């Protein structure tokens, strides 16, 4: 896929996630212009000249509403992913890169999410093991079993299952 098509694919997915979160919470989430690059990675020094609201608005791929200052989301939409590698003790360089990008934009105490979509495979969410996230939730009545994978200090879950079990917790952890 060409660079422009790939970039557009990523932008569309970021917009899809912002719309999903807006519908889920009844609050306004929006895609960050420039996909978080404004204060991420090499541009982190820009944080020194911005106030808290400005930083929050540019630090990740999704701008959360007022009061969600701890939410940090990195979005990735790719054609494929080596899921089989999650079952082996080897590193997954692509996943390591995405996690590093998530941390580049994060501040201490942030609730970090890596949201991924793969062609013909679906959407997935990764979160840090230390987060108080339910892998099995009380609110979930229709799903009898959960499947998740561990990768280093992160856990990967199905997108829909994650949100069904953790809608309230995500908001709570993002507002601390």
Descriptive notes:
By secondary structure, the protein is of the alpha+beta class. The strands form 2 sheets. It has a 5-stranded mixed beta sheet, with helices on both faces. Strands 1-2 form a two-stranded antiparallel sheet. About 5% of the residues have low confidence.
Q: Quick gist of this model?
A:
The chain is of the alpha+beta class and 176 residues long. It contains 4 helices and 7 strands.
What distance lies between the first and last C-alpha atoms, to the nearest angstrom?
40 Å
Give the H and E element order. HEHEEHEEEEH
Topology, number of strands: 7
Mean pLDDT: 84
Uncertain spans? 137-144
The helix count comes to: 4
Radius of gyration, in angstroms, nearest whole number? 16 Å
User: What class, by secondary structure content?
Assistant: alpha+beta
Shape assignment: globular
The assembly state of the depicted protein chains is single chain
Report the biggest beta sheet as strand number plus sense, adding barrel if it closes: 5 strands, mixed
| Helical percentage | 25-40%
Proportion of β residues? 15-25%
List keywords for this structure.
176 residues; alpha+beta; two-stranded antiparallel sheet; 4 helices
Topology:
Blueprint: H1 3-25, E1 30-31, H2 52-58, E2 62-63, E3 71-78, H3 93-105, E4 111-118, E5 122-128, E6 148-151, E7 154-158, H4 159-175
Parallel strand pairs: 3-4
Antiparallel strand pairs: 1-2, 4-5, 5-7, 6-7
């Amino acid at each position: 896929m060409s660079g422009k098509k790939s970039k557009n694919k990523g932008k569309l997915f970021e917009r899809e996630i912002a719309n999903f979160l807006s519908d889920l919470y009844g609050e306004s989430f929006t895609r960050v212009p420039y996909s978080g690059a404004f204060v991420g990675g090499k541009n982190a020094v820009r944080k020194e000249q911005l106030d808290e609201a400005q930083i929050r608005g540019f630090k990740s791929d999704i701008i959360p509403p007022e009061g969600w200052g701890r939410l940090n989301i990195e979005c990735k939409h790719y054609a494929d992913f080596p899921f089989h590698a999650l079952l082996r003790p080897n590193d997954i360089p692509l996943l390591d890169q995405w996690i590093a990008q998530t941390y580049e934009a994060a501040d201490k105490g942030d609730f970090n999410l890596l949201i991924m979509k793969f062609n013909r495979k679906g959407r997935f969410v990764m979160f840090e093991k230390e987060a108080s996230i339910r892998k099995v939730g009380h609110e979930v009545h229709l799903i009898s079993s959960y499947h998740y994978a561990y990768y280093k200090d992160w856990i990967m879950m199905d997108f829909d299952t994650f949100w069904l079990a953790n809608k309230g917790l995500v908001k709570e952890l993002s507002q601390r």
